[in-house]
Amino acid sequence: MAARIRKAVFPVAGLGTRFLPATKTVPKEMLPIIDRPLIQYAVDEAIEAGCDTLVFVTNRYKHAVADYFDKAYELEQKLERAGKTEQLELIRNVLPRGVRAVFVTQTEALGLGHAVLCAKPVVGDEPFAVILPDDLIWNRGAGALKQMADAAEESGASMIAVQDVPRDKTGSYGIVATEDFAERQGRITAMVEKPQPADAPSTLAVVGRYVLNPRIFQLLESTRPGAGGEIQLTDAIAALLAEETVNAYRFRGTRFDCGTHIGLIEATIRYALDHEKLSDAASGLMQDALREMGVTELQ
Ligand code: G1P
């Protein structure tokens, strides 16, 4: 048995240029699926996995993220006076009691690996999680990070979430080679960031959930810029493989790439169809829209 993760790192300093002009003022992590921003889904997943310290790696354009997790005294008072207890609970539970948020600044956009390294002073010498809020994972059972944290606690190995992707998409992901895959886990033997399809060692792609041993920080300190001229987390993990076991973990759940327009749309549709109050209306509207736009003939 290894130590249970208690800290989760959220790299949220990206520019989000794909969603301009919205992201001119709204950080992409604040884009909502129905009524909750992407960052809330990520935070809830970390808390469910057992984390009580949330480390946001941010920059000066992302005040909205810090404001969101701050206490909204005036709003709370107003809701309290108006007897709106349901809404009051909603805003209070953005950050449940006993969970703390820590904000760390990444002054230069030097890459995901560099963002994770910025969290070192807060994480210290214990295993921790990294969650990329763009990767939203929908689940009916335990969340993806909880599944991985349980497995990591059992074995002591670092865990990287993976899923199969079409070969022509390998250039968008970290890709792993594995051996001894049993049930959901396999030992990673190689890891490469955004390889061309012809050079990819497999079609098993890294999804934005990691459980890492703190040794990664030292390796990140000596990681040179890699793919795209950025300091890549993938390259530091590739170095970690030489020293200890790192497992790929095929999580249960459906992942939506909310860093793209179509992924955000897909996630919105899924959450609407799964929503206890909106499901019927949403499904009716979707069918009407398809019919009216002549997109397809529904049976
Ligand atoms: C990052 C990682 C990549 C991973 C991906 C998952 O890339 O560098 O290894 O596969 O997230 O979403 P990004 O999408 O930030 O370019």
Automatic annotation (TrEMBL):
What would be the name of the gene that encodes this protein?
galU
Query: What's the family?
Result: Belongs to the UDPGP type 2 family.
- Function text: May play a role in stationary phase survival.
**Native source species:** Novilysobacter erysipheiresistens
Give the matching PANTHER family.
UTP--GLUCOSE-1-PHOSPHATE URIDYLYLTRANSFERASE (PTHR43197)
Listed Pfam families: NTP_transferase
Domain Nucleotidyl transferase spans what residues? Answer: 12-269
**Transferase as UniProt keyword:** yes
Q: Any idea what this protein is called?
A: UTP--glucose-1-phosphate uridylyltransferase
